[in-house]
Amino acid sequence: MIRIVIFVAVFLFSVCTFASTWVVAKNSSVKSIKSAIELAAKGDTIRIMKGIYKEGNLVIQKSIVVVGIDYPVLDGENKYEIFTIAANDVSIIGLRMINTGVGSINDISAISAIEAKRLRVLNNQFENTFFGIHLANCLGSVVEDNVLHSNAEAEHQIGNGIHAWKCDSITIRNNKVSGHRDGIYFEFVTNSLVERNFSHHNMRYGLHFMFSHNDEYRSNVFQNNGAGVAVMYTKKVKMISNRFQDNWGASSYGLLLKDIGDADIKLNHFAKNTVAVYMEGSSRCHFTQNVFSGNGWAVKMQANCDENVYSKNSFLSNTFDMATNGSLVLNTVDANYWDKYEGYDLDKDRVGDVPYHPVSLYSMVVEKMPSAVMLWRSFLVYMLDRTEKVVPSVTPENLKDIHPAMRNYDYNF
Amino acid sequence: MKIAKYVSYDILRNRFIALYTLFLLIVTFSMFSLDSDPGKATLSLLNIILLVVPLVSIVFTTIHFYNSYEFIELLLAQPVSRKTIYFAEYFSISIALSTAYIIGVAIPMLFLNLSESSLYLIMAGLLLTFVFVALAFGASVATRDKAKAIGIALLFWFYFTLIYDGLILYVIYSFSDYPLDKVTLALVSLNPIDLARIIILLKLDLSALMGYTGAFYKNFFGSSLGVIYSVLFLFVWTLAPLLLAMRKFVRKDI
Amino acid sequence: MIIISAVNKRFGKLEVLKSIHAEFNHGKSYAMIGPNGSGKTTLIKCILGMVLPDSGTIQVNGKSIANDWSYRNLIGYMPQIGRYPDQMKIGQIFDMIRDLRQDQSHIDEDLIKEFSLDRMSDKRMHTLSGGTRQKVSASLAFLFNPRIMILDEPTAGLDPIAVEILKEKIIAEKNKDRTFLITSHIMSDLDELTSNVVYLEEGKILFNDTIDLLKEETGEIKLGRAIATIMKRNLKESEKV
After folding, report:
1. What's the pLDDT at C180?
2. C52 φ, ψ (degrees, to nearest 5)
3. Into which CATH architecture does domain A19-226 fall?
4. CA distance A277 to A333
5. Which residue of B has its CA nearest to C94?
6. Which end of chain C is less packed: N or C, by CB atoms within 10 Å?
7. Domain locations in chain A?
8. Which of B249, B253, B254 best probes binding to C when mutated, by most C CB atoms within 10 angstroms?
């Protein structure tokens, strides 16, 4: 009797500590994911074998690991949300999720997590989903190595790729997002890291965040998104070694900063954007060691920006280096390399002896009359700019780089 | 075309063509040696080419036309049609000036900075040569007076380089409250120098051009359509004055 | 043979040719005489197709010259001032014109040889004196043995020896059933070279007949005097009116 008691005790103990594994397959005893989730206990693993599963909405309310083998397909049949997660320590790994429903009121997602701590979404594929991954109130979660792709034709028909709301300390790493509304969307997300993601060809923004303080963005590529990247109402973000590229259009920006404070933006490459950096109501942003090349406008700064610093950046073959709608005396531009600089360096200290004025007269003309850009590089415009350089009358006299570098910094990214 | 052979032989030996070639060579080489960045050098060269190529083409052609007046007379006494003489003169001068341009700018550029924008610059300069030689024929045929013709030629040049763009800017300024994209494009098409400039603009400043245009122009500028459009219109700019002047030349009393 | 009928030409307000009628026949040589601005050169240019008449027709060997250029195969023309592309050599000029002419059957290089132009065929045109250029022009005019010769002031600017060579050539060619049209201010030359006189004044032909008849009518022996008499007579007539 005692032996039996001990045996049962040991058995129960082993069940509690050593999680069991459930295999879902057509020829297995467990044929549906739904039943596997019901059977599984906290800490169990569900292995889903290759196949197509149409099971509507799957709700996970316990801490389990769901692993796909050879990317089993979970089809939402254009009706359902695929996973709804409301538990801590859940992992979703190696699945292929397709065809979620579309909702104009509900944010239907392939994976929707609400108040889930330490959620891990790894190595999944998302195709034709409304929202890809939707995190609300998730702390310490990780989204890594996923590929998300949708084919939306209009902004209102599609949700965001990776959408996070009120999260803290999450990590978004090495994902590829395309064809969504916003590639990566943060609202009230703090202390988080966004790293090595590739967000391209999204309808609206490659990256979009608001009220998301103390976040860090590293080594991401934002390319060819409808309106580039827009970040708003946020303090203390770090953006390092990102690439903002090929964002073309009338209201398209490599990086749009609206009401951003104390940002540290360095070692980024802004290439071939209509406007590389657009700033509005932003303060104390430090742009250092960035490269601006082949942009229409490298920097457009509205007059309500102050105490921003641009130093040691390289400005290469941009049509216009800087433009503004007012007199930009509250910001500092120092020690950058400007390929349009025509000054000299008599004392050979590699710093130009005369200041460089990055705002040209014609950039201000174009600011007021956009059609006038068609006359750019004409003899008339050349003479206008020359005259303005000799006798400045319209351009802000005090906005100048007193220590322009004579040589390109040659940052290699 | 037999005539063209002899006339172009004569022009190519002309001291002025040699000077022009030399000038272009010096400018090209000095641009590329003064500037370590070949992109910047290309830009500086663009400014000079847009200014000098039309000026030299139109003035040289006008002067040459009057200097060869007696020669044209001699040819007219031969059994040759006027059209033949006219086109022989046009092609000879165009070929001579293009050769100067190719030796002075194109070939050095191919060695110094072979890039897409260089090729477009070379093409733009050649097309401008054709256009302004044709315009010079227009000026020359219009009057018997050499000084007057040179005056007209210079006026053409000044008008297309400076005055016309000033007028466009004035139009844009006066109607800045209206959407002017298409109007501006149409206006710019009426100036060959602007068209040549836009070919380069499409290469160097595409990002900025994208900034002000709607969806239609995004397609227009973004594809090769913009370049094709400009080149096509430059051909129109060559053929229209050339043929108009020819009609006049055929009926002109020499 | 050339038939000019009812040709009018005005430059602006100035009437240069006033309904000109004339025939120039083969086997005859015509001296075209008239004061400066009487329309001689314009008439020649009309025949050459350089000036297009406002009205009237010109026929060469029975065909109208309007919108045609092939008839110029029949014409040799020596301009008053011959100017050539500066950088071309004498030899090249001859080559070029020979290139342009279709009929190469009867090439006549007598003048080239007599003016010794063949020995300086490598000289560039801009290095030549006015006289040498006139030699080139004369040689070119005779080069193709044309049926019609139009010489505009052929002896002006030539040295006496060259003048004699040219005159001899004209006299020799005159007898070969050709039409010669010569303008000159040197009456003695015309006396020697031509058989007929066309006298133009203010765009009208006032006299067109043989020199002999003219001399007979005026009772003068020399052509120059005869012409002067006609001019005076006209002056009186216009005063009467």
Report:
1. 92
2. -95, 125
3. 3 Solenoid (2.160)
4. 14
5. B6
6. C
7. 19-226
8. B253
Domain ranges of chain B: 2-250
Q: Which residue(s) pair with C33 in the sheet?
A: C199
Judge whether A378 is closer than 8 Å to chain B, CB to CB: yes
The Cα of B30 is separated from the nearest Cα of chain A by a number of Å equal to 16
* Contacts made by residues B31-40, CB under 8 angstroms, sequence distance 24+: B32/B108, B32/B112, B32/B113, B37/A339, B37/A408, B38/B112, B38/B113, B38/B115, B39/A317, B39/A339, B39/B115, B39/B117, B39/B204, B40/A317, B40/A339
The interface predicted TM-score (ipTM) is 0.87
Task: Provide the phi-psi class of C27: left if phi over 0, else alpha when psi is between -120 and 50, else beta.
Answer: left
B177 touches chain A (CB under 8 A): no
Residue of B nearest to C51 (CA): B253
Handedness of CA B123, B124, B129, B134 (dihedral sign): positive
Which residues in chain B have Cβ-Cβ distances shorter than 8 Å to C102? 79
Q: Identify the segments of chain C with pLDDT beneath 70.
A: 103, 240-241
Helix (H, G, I), strand (E, B) or coil at A386: helix
Q: How far apart are CA C207 and CA C128, in angstroms?
A: 39
Those residues with Cβ within 8 angstroms of residue B151's Cβ, 6 or more apart along the chain or in another chain: none
DSSP for chain B reads -HHHHHHHHHHHT-HHHHHHHHHHHHHHHHHHHH-S-HHHHHHHHHHHHHHHHHHHHHHHHHHHHHHTHHHHHHHHTSS--HHHHHHHHHHHHHHHHHHHHIIIIIHHHHHH--SHHHHHHHHHHHHHHHHHHHHHHHHHHH-S-HHHHHHHHHHHHHIIIIIHHHHHHHHHHHTTTS--HHHHHHHHHT-HHHHHHHHHHHHHSHHHHHHH--HHHHHHHHSTHHHHHHHHHHHHHHHHHHHHHHHHHHT---
3 state SS for A223-277: ECCCCEEEEEEEECCEEECCEEECCCCCCCEEEEEEEEECCEEECCEEECCCEEE
CA distance C108 to chain B (A): 16
Span between the terminal Cα atoms of chain C, in Å: 36
Residue of B nearest to C47 (CA): B77
Strands in C148-152's sheet, in edge-to-edge order, are C75-78, C148-152, C179-183, C29-33, C196-201, C204-210
Q: Do chains C and A touch (3 or more CB pairs under 8 A)?
A: no
Q: Is A82 exposed, middle or buried (0-12, 13-18, 19+ CB in 10 A)?
A: buried
Q: Under a CB-based contact definition with an 8 Å cutoff, are residues C207 and C198 in contact?
A: yes
Domains of chain C plus CATH, in order, are 2-240 (3.40.50.300)
Out of A320, A371, A378, the one facing B208 most closely (by C-beta) is A320
Distance CA A189, CA A209 (A): 8
Dihedral angle over CA of A56, A59, A63, A68, nearest 10 = 10
d(CA C150, CA B44) in angstroms, rounded, equals 57
Going by C-alpha positions, the residue among A354, A355, A361, A356 that lies closest to residue A392 is A361
What is the C-alpha to C-alpha distance for residues B99 and B105, in angstroms, rounded to an integer? 10
Q: How far apart are CA B217 and CA B225, in angstroms?
A: 10
C101 part of contact set with chain B, CB < 8 Å: yes
| Separation between Cα atoms, residue B57 and residue B101, nearest integer Å | 10
Dist. CA B75–CA B171, nearest whole Å: 48
For residue range A204-236, list pLDDT tens digits in order.
999 999 999 999 999 999 999 988 899 999 999
Locate the chain B residue with the closest alpha carbon to C95.
B6
At which residue do the structure tokens 């209509």 appear? A274
